[in-house]
Write a structure and sequence with these properties.
By secondary structure, this protein is an alpha/beta fold. The chain has helices at residues 43-50, 99-102, 143-162, 178-189, 201-210, 238-245, 267-271, 285-297, 312-320; strands at residues 2-6, 17-21, 31-41, 66-73, 85-88, 91-93, 113-114, 126-130, 170-174, 193-197, 214-216, 226-231, 246-254, 276-279, 304-308, 327-331. The radius of gyration is 19 Å and the shape is globular.
Length: 332
C-alpha cells in the first residue's frame, strides 16, 4: 500500500513527509483493518511533522481523522462486518485499569496511545484500529465532511464543555479553523451568543455566515464581556488577551495539544474575580460519541478544502500558512 511517513520532522513540514510503499498491516486480535476513504489534516499532524511534539514512533504515518470501511476483522471482534463504515480518531487505546480510566477520565491515562503519533494513522491506503475505539458515524454527511468531526469536532466539543459556558451565555472563540468552526455551531445550537476573534479575514467572514454575533481581530476586545472562551490558536500570547475579555467568573479553555509560551500573567487584570484558566487534554470516547450523536441530530456545516492523498505535503504546508478555509481533508 502507499503511505506517507514523517521521516525528518522540522519547519519544512511538506519536506518532512516521504511517500513510501508499505505492507498492508494485519489486524491484531481485537482490531479492525480499515481501508481509508478520507483523512482530515489536523493541526496536531502539523505539530508532529514540524517536530513540535516529541517523536513517539520514528517514521510514523500521521493522520487521526480517518473515515473508512472495514476490510478485515481481527480475532475476537464482534459487532462489525466487512464493508461497515467506521471512524478512527486520535485516542487509540488506554489501559482501562488506572485510577483515571476507572473514574471516567481515560483521556488522562498515563498509558494512553494515539493514532498518527504512537501508531500509524490515516495518511495511507489502510490503517488499523481497536474495535472498541472505532466510531459509528452519522448518516447524511460525505466522507470528507465526516473526517474533521473525528478530532476537530470532538476536541472542540470537549473544550466547550471545559469552558463551562452557561445556558444562553456569551462565548469567545480565538482562532477559527477546522475545530473552531464546528464548535461555534454546537454553541449556537445550544443558544449561545458567539464572538469570534481571528486574524484571518476569510475566517471572520465564515464566522459571520455561520451565525456569529461578531468577528474581529485576534487581539481585539469582543463587543461585550464573555462568560466563557476557547482558545484554538496555538499562540500563548493570546492567553492573557482572552482572560482579560472574560467577565467575572468566566472560564478560558485552551484546546490545543501544543501552545507557544504564555507571557507572565497579571493576577489583578487577568485572574482576579474568579476567572479560570483550563487546559484540554485529548478526549474520552464518550466525548466522541456525544459529538457524533449531536451531529446526527443537528446538521453541521462542515467547511472542507479537499486534497488528493498524493498531495498530503501541500495540505500540511497550506495549513501551516493559514491558507486552508475550514478543514483540509485528504481523499483516497
Amino acid at each position: 500500500m502507499q503511505a506517507w511517513q514523517v521521516r525528518s520532522p522540522g519547519p519544512d513540514v511538506a519536506g518532512s513527509l516521504r511517500r513510501v510503499s508499505l505492507r498492508v498491516p494485519r489486524p491484531a486480535p481485537g482490531e479492525l483493518l480499515v481501508a481509508v476513504d478520507a483523512c482530515g489534516v489536523c493541526r496536531t499532524d502539523l505539530h508532529v511533522a514540524a517536530g513540535e511534539l516529541p517523536v513517539h514512533r520514528p517514521a510514523v504515518v500521521p493522520g487521526h481523522e480517518v473515515v473508512g470501511h472495514v476490510l478485515e476483522l481481527g480475532d475476537g471482534v464482534t459487532g462489525f462486518r466487512p464493508g461497515d463504515r467506521v471512524g478512527v480518531a486520535w485516542l487509540r487505546e488506554t489501559c482501562g485499569a488506572c485510577r483515571y480510566c476507572r473514574r471516567g477520565a481515560e483521556n488522562l491515562c498515563p498509558r494512553s496511545r494515539y493514532t498518527g503519533w504512537d501508531a500509524d494513522g490515516g495518511y495511507a491506503d489502510c490503517t488499523t484500529v481497536r474495535a472498541d475505539f472505532a466510531y459509528a458515524l452519522p448518516d447524511g454527511y460525505s466522507v470528507a465532511e465526516l473526517a474533521p468531526l473525528l478530532c476537530a469536532g470532538i476536541i472542540g466539543y470537549r473544550a466547550l464543555r471545559r469552558a463551562d459556558l452557561p445556558p444562553g451565555g456569551r462565548l469567545g472563540i480565538y482562532g477559527f479553523g477546522a475545530s473552531a468552526h464546528l464548535t461555534a455551531q454546537v454553541a449556537l445550537a445550544q443558544g449561545a451568543r458567539v464572538h469570534v476573534l481571528t486574524r484571518s479575514s476569510q475566517a471572520q467572514k465564515l464566522a459571520l455566515e455561520l451565525g456569529a454575533a461578531s468577528a474581529g481581530g485576534a487581539y481585539d476586545a469582543p463587543p461585550e464581556p464573555l462568560d466563557a472562551a476557547v482558545l484554538f490558536a496555538p499562540v500563548g500570547d493570546l492567553v492573557p488577551v482572552a482572560l482579560r475579555a472574560l467577565d467575572r467568573g468566566g472560564t478560558l479553555a485552551v484546546a490545543g495539544i501544543h501552545l507557544s509560551d504564555i507571557p507572565a500573567l497579571n493576577y489583578q487584570r487577568e485572574l482576579f474575580q474568579e476567572r479560570t484558566l483550563r487546559s484540554v487534554t485529548s478526549n474520552t470516547r464518550e466525548d466522541g460519541r456525544a459529538l457524533l450523536t449531536f451531529a446526527a441530530g443537528h446538521r453541521l456545516t462542515v467547511v472542507v478544502s479537499p486534497y488528493p492523498m498524493a498531495q498530503a505535503g501541500a495540505a500540511l504546508a497550506d495549513l501551516a500558512a493559514d491558507r486552508v478555509n475550514g478543514a483540509a481533508v485528504l481523499l483516497a
